[in-house]
Amino acid sequence: MQHDHDIIIVGGGMVGAALAARLGHTGLSVGLVEQGDAPTAPSGDYDLRISSLNARSLAFIKASGTALPQERSCPFRHIDVANQDGTGHSLFSAEESGMEDFGIFIENQTLQYALWQRLEQLPSVSCYTHCAPISTGTASNARTLELDNGTTLSARLIVGADGANSTLRALAGISVTSYDYHQRAMIINVETELPQQDVSWQVFTPTGPLAMLPLPGQRASLVWYDRDETTKAREQLDDDALKTAIETAFPKRLGGITRIVARASFPIKRQHAQRYIGTRLALIGDAAHVVHPLAGQGLNIGLHDADTLAEIIIKGRDAGDSINLLRFECQRRVANQAMIAATDSFHHLFTGAKPLRQLGDLSLQIAERFPLAKRMMMQQANGLNPFKMR
Ligand SMILES: Cc1cc2nc3c(=O)[nH]c(=O)nc-3n(C[C@H](O)[C@H](O)[C@H](O)COP(=O)(O)OP(=O)(O)OC[C@H]3O[C@@H](n4cnc5c(N)ncnc54)[C@H](O)[C@@H]3O)c2cc1C
């Protein structure tokens, strides 16, 4: 069976679903291919995977007509960055950067579910679940995609949003450069004695940062970056021992831990596709790039890819036109390369040899002393133009 669409998107994660919703909202015919189930409604305890969404990402999601449930998200207005021995410290405040807040923290599942709910309302979007591409080819003014359930799809443009191990990227013969940080991020959702407010904080230690992302009420998501082997040993601790380890390592301002709600760990790497585009094909999100998560920007830059591509598609006459795709690649590669370099330098400045760490401390002191530099850094991190004065 063959189905024709304007655009096919492979991967219904947060980035792929957001692009499908934005394009479907304008009436374009979109086929979304997802190997898994449609996401289910979040309920009860918070999901382990939490992401920050900055101003540009929120505006993009809003432009697709998607409503995010406020009760499961937490706005943050301050970012507190310090090193462990207290020689470097900087407090970034949304107000002094000319913004109401820096964005929100939201569970990945809540965001993905909200986007899929929106897709259900859009008559021009068809979701193909439990299937994956096995081959792709070009036809006149179109690209075809053969799925493992016997269906063939065709469209003017096929977008790969199928994550770091993208099948579409492999089928298109696009290779990646990658780097293993030999670090893992242990994510621990906790209940705390103190209510968490609107501050997200990060403390750099020589073996990796400790971060606290606030959730509504007396909940927080802790991210503990450390060497592979140390994290694997820490994962063996029972809840009481882990609670004690957190209370010892994390700053006292977190308050006591009343319950470990859930935990898991993820390897940390960076990866960049050699090309973002091919004939009537484009890659977005983690399929195109994976950055160190310490600055909470991986999903944001994936949504910015989707935003840029959507604008080009909506304004253009042929979604897969090679000049338009080249424009997409030029704009996004420069921005993403800058983010990869910035997160990489943060990692090396704060976890490298002592002279590098001293440089890291100095950068926090500079940020603290030069409000304009600080404001520009924050606007850049929010996907806003730092040179536009408000
Ligand atoms: C510890 C950690 C913390 C992070 N915190 C943040 C944060 O605070 N802020 C932030 O911006 N980013 C953060 N990130 C990064 C963020 O999680 C990723 O950048 C984001 O999830 C990428 O989304 P995606 O939709 O591109 O890919 P994915 O989330 O990987 O989604 C890919 C989708 O494609 C589907 N798929 C895969 N293969 C196929 C196939 N062959 N056929 C069909 N479907 C397929 C998958 O089932 C999935 O639904 C963090 C990452 C880590 C590891």
TrEMBL record:
Cofactor: FAD
Every FAD-binding domain range: 5-340
UniProt entry keywords in alphabetical sequence: FAD, Flavoprotein, Monooxygenase, Oxidoreductase, Ubiquinone
Pathway(s): Cofactor biosynthesis; ubiquinone biosynthesis
Leader sequence segment: none
Pfam families noted in UniProt: FAD_binding_3
Gene3D superfamilies in alphabetical order: FAD/NAD(P)-binding domain (3.50.50.60)
InterPro entries (UniProt xref): FAD-bd (IPR002938), FAD/NAD-bd_sf (IPR036188), Ubi_Hdrlase_CS (IPR018168), UbiH/COQ6 (IPR010971), UbiH/COQ6_monooxygenase (IPR051205)
Entries under SUPFAM superfamilies matching the protein: FAD/NAD(P)-binding domain
Entry's family note: Belongs to the UbiH/COQ6 family.
NCBIfam families: Ubi-OHases (TIGR01988)
Protein's recorded name: UbiH/UbiF/VisC/COQ6 family ubiquinone biosynthesis hydroxylase
